[in-house]
Amino acid sequence: MDSHSLRIPKLLTERQVAEVFGVSVDTIRRLRRAGRIAHTRVGGRIRYTERHLAAYLERETRPCRDDKENGLERSADAGSASGQTALPGAEPGSTDLLDKHGAHRLAQRIFKTRG
Q1: Which residues pair with 48 in a beta bridge?
Q2: Which three-class secondary structure string do you get for the chain?
Q3: In this structure, how many other beta carbons lie within 10 angstroms of the beta carbon of residue 48?
């Protein structure tokens, strides 16, 4: 053979690809039918190359999300696992006197017994 000989990639069946990915054969078939994974037909049979699998994995790979780089750091007011959360409601003495009277009148109206 000369230096220009044809190099044919190893062809894998759907079952082999399913084993490599750790999924069912049906999953591989769904991916192929949805056009999400490339394939080759040889004699009417579906085959996959390492290039097909690598391209699929590259497209499906999502980068890690670093909250600080993406501006998603949590504010202290919203609360998070690393910080304290704000308590609901108003603190004693934080409501204006006029609002207290209005709230009292509204409560009397709401809870007034009907006779």
Answers
A1: 12
A2: CCCCCCCCCCCECHHHHHHHHCCCHHHHHHHHHCCCCCCEEECCEEEECHHHHHHHHHHHCCCCCCCCCCCCCCCCCCCECCECCCCCCCCCCCCCHHHHHHHHHHHHHHHCCCC
A3: 23
**Cα separation values, 28 from 12, 49, 53, Å:** 12, 14, 11
Structure tokens at 112: 């007034």
pLDDT per residue rounded down to tens, the chain (115 residues): 555 788 889 999 999 999 999 999 999 999 999 999 999 999 999 999 999 999 999 999 988 877 665 555 555 555 555 566 666 666 666 666 667 778 888 888 888 876 5
Q: How far apart are CA 37 and CA 32, in angstroms?
A: 5
Q: Which residues, in sequence order, are bridge partners of residue 89?
A: none
Q: What is the pLDDT of residue 105?
A: 82
Task: Enumerate the domain spans of the chain.
Answer: 14-60
